[in-house]
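One record is given unchanged without comment:
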Amino acid sequence: MNKELKALTQAITKYSLILGVSFGAVGALIFRDGLVALGILIGNLTGLLGYFMIVQMAINLTGDEKTGKKTGIFNYSVRYLLYALIFCFCVFYLKISVVSLLVGILSHKASIYIYSILKKEREDENGSN
C-alpha cells in the first residue's frame, strides 16, 4: 500500500470510528437501548470492513480489463453477501434493529464524504497561497 493510500485509509478509519461511536452514544441516549448503539457500531464496522475489502481489491487489480471486471464483480458479490450475513445474524439472532445497522453503515459513508470535503478544503487553501 502506497503512502497516500495508507494516509487515506487511516483518516477514513479514524473519522468512521469517531462518527460510529458518536452516533451510537446518541442513539443509546435517545432510545435508552444498548442494542441501538451496538447496531450502529456493528453497521459502522461492517462499512469499514467493506471499505478495506474495496481497497485490497483495488491494490490487487492488474492491467487486464477482462480479469479486472471478473475480479470486481466477484469481490462486489462477496462484499454484499458478507453484509447480508452480518445483517441477518444481527437482526434474527441478536434482535438488533436493521435501522440501527443502516445508520452505522451510513455513518461510515459520511466519514468518506467528510474526508473528501476536508481534503478539498486543504487543497483549496494550499492552492490559493
About this structure: Helices lie at 3-31, 34-60, 65-93, 98-128. The chain has four helices and no strands.
